[in-house]
Amino acid sequence: xxxxxxxxxxxxxxxxxxxxxxxxxxxxxxxxxxxxxxxxxxxxxxxxxxxxxxxxxxxxxxxxxxxxxxxxxxxxxxxxxxxxxxxxxxxxxxxxxxxxxxxxxxxxxxxxxxxxxxxxxxxxxxxxxxxxxxxxxxxxxxxxxxxxxxxxxxxxxxxxxxxxxxxxxxxxxxxxxxxxxxxxxxxxxxxxxxxxxxxxxxxxxxxxxxxxxxxxxxxxxxxxxxxxxxxxxxxxxxxxxxxxxxxxxxxxxxxxxxxxxxxxxxxxxxxxxxxxxxxxxxxxxxxxxxxxxxxxxxxxxxxxxxxxxxxxxxxxxxxxxxxxxxxxxxxxxxxxxxxxxxxxxxxx
Length: 348
Hints:
Layout: E1 6-7, H1 13-22, H2 28-39, H3 53-62, E2 63-64, E3 69-75, E4 81-86, E5 92-99, E6 104-107, E7 111-114, E8 127-131, H4 134-152, E9 158-161, H5 171-182, E10 194-198, H6 202-210, E11 216-220, H7 226-232, H8 241-255, E12 259-265, H9 273-282, E13 288-294, H10 308-320, E14 324-328
Parallel strand pairs: 1-2, 6-9, 9-10, 10-11, 11-12, 12-13, 13-14
Antiparallel strand pairs: 3-4, 4-5, 5-6, 7-8
Helix pairs in contact: 1-2, 4-5, 6-8, 9-10
């Protein structure tokens, strides 16, 4: 790939139209090229069968298509599939297909690695190599969608940005990918079936609200105690729970959306009745639902899964406060595909 080539997936329809006109091509060809890129999600210009060979050659000279190459499929005993995506620069990210009886969910990544360093998360140990492009994010969904159909004859019904990376630190590319996933010019999925998960960056959450996003927002909270959260989530040192609360109140008022909190129960760390009370108090400021998540080992001896009776007591207390609570049983633990376990081990 020549260095001067550009990723054509970064161009808007108008950009493509201007490029074609500057090369004495009819403007209507832009819509055809755009459809091949996003709706038919081609991987090379040679696939564009209704585009002339000379134009394909021009496109091939000037641009490349930054798709992803799936490899290293691992299938769990519960049918969850983890796969690595090889990128154009030989980097790896991971994605997960989570099937159920009549639906399937794609868990996708937004960055190569992550620099936020949450202690309980395997991805946080990798550091950050780079952001993914909008095309790379989009094509993860395309590949997992194909996989769901090929392996289980299921349509892809949901997307969660809960893979590697912090989506709000790759804001523009993530929003472009979500726009195309939900656009009729792309995959045409309802934004209500898309959930973005973030550690909670107040300034960026307010930006989401100002941009009037339609997809769902989930916060990886894991503690409503300032000192505890800072202890295992360094991001909290510069983005306090109080500033996060203020941003979430703003987000709820502007969008009308209910917030989802993800709460990973860690034995003896954040699973006491006092922790449950802190969480209930924190949730009084906006409508919220809480997903209680089982801890999945990442090799750090400090963290262990909460005992069943402790989990039950924690959940029972929250429900006694009329809170919406779901316990998320982990999928794909035997292939390191569960929450917090993605680390792109293969090929490293």
